[in-house]
Amino acid sequence: DLTLDRVRLTGQVSDVYDSGRVIAQASGGSAKHEVGLWLTHLALRAAEVVAPIRSTLVRKKGGGAEVISLGTTMSPQEAKGHLQAILSDYRRGQEIPLCFFPQTSKAYALSLYEAEEDKERESKEAVALVKAEEAWRSEPGAEASDPYNLTLHQGAAPFSPGYTLVEVSER
């Protein structure tokens, strides 16, 4: 139970053990599962239900397993700050379309993170944009093929240079 900016968040979180929260997933999963892990982790840290808590997602990847683990170093105040920013974006999304692309964003962030340190920042960002474009259009489940995104962006990649959000008329 947590109140942020006059909004009360309540719920029950499963899979919490003495060692932290552990989610086992039989499928390969997607970026949306990682977003869910992150949001629940923030809520647990902000509510100080268990302090400190580690959140771990274990899922199938190729012939093996992938482990994503979120640590215990974030303070409850930091977690509340992140949740308030997300809540603000949610409210904004009730008024205008939000450009939120988990797969594309993950590809961009991973590319920046994994880039060689000696490259110039500009070239790292250019490579990351190429990776984002590939993720945007990759099948199956490409975000570019999502009906919402097709309608809103009319086939354009929303992170391309010079892109502006098209006006969506009421029907």
Index terms:
four-stranded mixed beta sheet; 171 residues; alpha+beta
What can you tell me about this protein's structure?
The protein is an alpha+beta fold and 171 residues long. It has five helices and six strands, in the order ββββαββαααα. It has helices spanning 31-47, 76-93, 102-114, 121-137, 147-153; strands at residues 2-4, 7-9, 16-17, 20-25, 55-61, 64-70. The strands form two sheets. A four-stranded mixed beta sheet has the order 3-4-5-6, covered by helices on one side. α1 (31-47) crosses α2 (76-93) and α3 packs antiparallel against α4. The longest helix has 18 residues, at 76-93. The termini are far apart. The model has no long low-confidence stretch (mean pLDDT 81).
User: Largest sheet, if any?
Assistant: 4 strands, mixed
How confident overall, as mean pLDDT?
81
Widest β-sheet, arrangement of strands: 3-4-5-6
Q: What is the first-to-last residue Cα distance?
A: 40 Å
- Give the oligomeric state of the chains in this entry, treating copies of one chain as homo and distinct chains as hetero: single chain
